[in-house]
Write a structure and sequence with these properties.
Oligomer: single chain
Strand content: 25-35%
Strand order of the largest sheet: 4-5-6-10-9-8-7
CATH superfamily of the largest domain: Bira Bifunctional Protein, Domain 2
Protein name: Bifunctional ligase/repressor BirA
Distance between the termini: 41 Å
EC number: 6.3.4.15
Family: Belongs to the biotin--protein ligase family.
CATH architecture of the largest domain: 2-Layer Sandwich
Bound molecules: biotin
InterPro entries: aa-tRNA-synth_II/BPL/LPL (IPR045864), ArsR-like_HTH (IPR011991), Bifunct_BirA (IPR030855), Biotin_CoA_COase_ligase (IPR004408), BPL_C (IPR003142), BPL_LPL_catalytic (IPR004143), HTH_11 (IPR013196), Transcriptional_repressor_C (IPR008988)
Order of helices and strands: HEHHEEHEHEEHHEEEEHHHEEEEE
Organism: Tepidibacillus fermentans
Structural class: alpha+beta
CATH class of the largest domain: Alpha Beta
């Protein structure tokens, strides 16, 4: 019952909810509601209470403040510097500015809400307040340009692995870098870099993870989902971020030294849509074929209708 009450407050974050509404919705007495709220306070939930209006959630243990994120974070460089905003246009934009100003490798920009979240290919990214993880981090890699192109694929493997471990579900990767569960997108990755062919000045890895949404706007309903919607867990964002940072940092040293090779098998194991016929849209052309696998460079291998194999470097898959 307490989980259900938590859920009501999290879903109506920043609005007042009356004890009466909760008692009706859950079919329990007002006294029982009050007792649960007192217990939630002991767990670290903070409420504003106003007579006749009810309770408003001010702070819950899932708040992603800088202090909370840093507490017990055991990484050496990823997340050592954290810049937190309760609201910002785009963490990606802020990360670019900070990177130009010389902030260290591993600096993280994170927010509770984005008003102009950026997606791949000029799309927007829906980033509702308190319902997901919206963050960008800065890397100053020592490797060359071609390896930098594979970092998005590497990041997808690390993220899918982290999600699988935490929520024991089949999180898959839609090439090149969307995380899918039950046929819908739960997370997207946007990698941008600044530099020249032979020297990368910095890279920004932007990650959006839908954690708590239970509804989506009409245009996203059919294609997007959240961890909560698919798994029933109410994810703890801090726990998820810290696990991801730890995994990413550990695997990154291997990626730096050995490239994508040690990770491409894991990627293939998680590849979404294997054996399915797709259309692949590129800037100037469209290819049709069946998804076979990716190769150790991260290129997508399709089998075209005449049986020939096509190797694809970039594009957007449509089923
Ligand atoms: C995609 O199109 O799938 C990539 C989405 C990337 C969204 C994240 S949310 C945090 C960061 N800031 C942004 O403005 N975009 C990325």
């Amino acid at each position: 019952m307490r989980e259900k009450i938590k859920e009501i407050f999290i879903q109506s974050r920043h609005q007042f909810v009356s004890g009466e509404e909760i008692s009706k919705q859950l079919n329990i007495s007002r006294t029982a509601v009050w007792k649960h709220i007192e217990e939630l306070k002991k767990e670290g939930y903070q409420f504003e209470a106003i007579r006749k209006r009810g309770y408003r959630l001010l702070n819950d243990p899932d708040d992603i403040s800088k202090e909370r994120l840093k507490a017990n974070l055991s990484t050496q460089w990823l997340g050592k510097e954290i810049i937190y905003f309760s609201e910002v246009d785009s963490t990606q934009r802020v990360a670019h500015e900070l990177a130009k100003n010389g902030v260290p490798h591993g600096t993280v920009v994170i927010t509770d809400e984005q008003t102009e979240g950026k997606g791949r290919l000029g799309r927007t990214w829906f980033s509702e307040k308190g319902k997901g993880i919206w963050m960008s981090f800065i890397l100053r890699p020592s490797f060359a340009y071609h390896q930098a192109l594979q970092i998005t694929l590497f990041t997808s493997v690390v993220l899918a692995n982290t999600l699988k471990k935490l929520y024991q579900r089949n999180f898959l990767i839609k090439w090149p870098n969307d995380i899918y569960i039950n046929g819908k997108k739960v997370s997207g990755i946007l990698t941008e870099m600044h530099g020249e062919q032979d020297q990368i000045h910095y890279m920004i890895i932007g990650i959006g993870i839908n954690t708590h949404q239970i509804t989506f706007p009409e245009n996203l309903k059919e294609i997007a989902t959240s961890i909560q919607q698919e798994t029933g867990y109410i994810p703890k964002r801090i726990e998820l971020i810290q696990h991801f940072f730890t995994e990413f940092e550990q695997d990154y040293s291997r990626f730096e030294g050995e490239g994508f090779m040690p990770f491409y098998k894991q990627y293939n194991d998680a590849l979404y849509g294997k054996g399915r016929r797709i259309q692949l849209k590129q800037v100037n052309q469209q290819i049709e074929g069946t998804i076979m696998c990716i190769d150790s460079n991260g290129y997508l291998i399709l089998q075209e209708d005449d049986g020939k194999e096509a190797k694809v470097v970039s594009g957007d898959i449509f089923f």
